[in-house]
Amino acid sequence: MSTYTNAKELSNLVLGKTTDYCSQYNPELLQAVPRSLNRDSLGLKAEQLPFLGEDVWYGYELSWLNNKGKPVVAVAEFSFPCTSANIVESKSFKLYLNSFNQTKFSSWQQVESHLTADLSATAGATAKVKLFPVDNCPALSLPGDNAICIDDLDIEVNQYQLMPEILATANHAQESQVEEYLVCHLLKSNCLITNQPDWASIYISYSGKQICHETLLKYLISFRQHNEFHEQCVERIFCDIKHFCEVENLSVFARYTRRGGLDINPFRSTSHKTAPKLRTIRQ
Fold this sequence. Notes:
Blueprint: E1 32-34, H1 36-39, E2 54-65, E3 71-81, E4 86-88, H2 90-98, H3 108-123, E5 128-132, E6 148-149, E7 177-190, E8 197-209, H4 213-221, H5 230-244, E9 247-256, E10 267-269
Parallel strand pairs: 6-7
Antiparallel strand pairs: 1-4, 2-3, 3-5, 7-8, 8-9, 9-10
């Protein structure tokens, strides 16, 4: 009888071991675990299963670069038939998805095609993969808000290390006074201690001279390889905008994806003590 306990098939898995985070596409990171390890103890045979079904996963931390080097983020829906020979070991799955982070792909379809092929090969059966914008996944729909999303701006990016001076000319040419509520879902930094990637949607509301959206987006993307805690990143963004941009009122609110059952959501403002009630699909 086979079980997961002390199974030799599990001895080479990355689970529970110190690992490096690869940011270049690498399907070899995926690891398979035979379903039979658990089913043998239940007396289940692959050819005579007493049930139908599938395993459905949602990926909230999928990102890659387009041909101009600009990050793209997506929510992914993965489904595996319960008849597949293997399950995909979860930590290896996370490491594999992280390997897309600094890799250029020409389209969403190309990413979806790679995911489908790699996961099908690991599971030993056809996996289904669907990619959705982070604010429009029907299965995970939440009430929207009125923030202007700056993610779709067509910019070229080549800076992934923090560069606050990008903001130096963000609004110096502007004369008009505005009030804006902006959101960017492309914020990524890394944990100061573990180097694990941290993902967030960042909401910025301000009044004053209008900030160039393209410049602000480039600045936020420059956190992509930066190592700092969530709270420090938000305070840095707040201070950099206050320092370089001629704004009066300013609030910066980051909604980070959860890790270990916790999500951390720092809020800093010139005028409000408490954070707004808000939630995103990736949380």
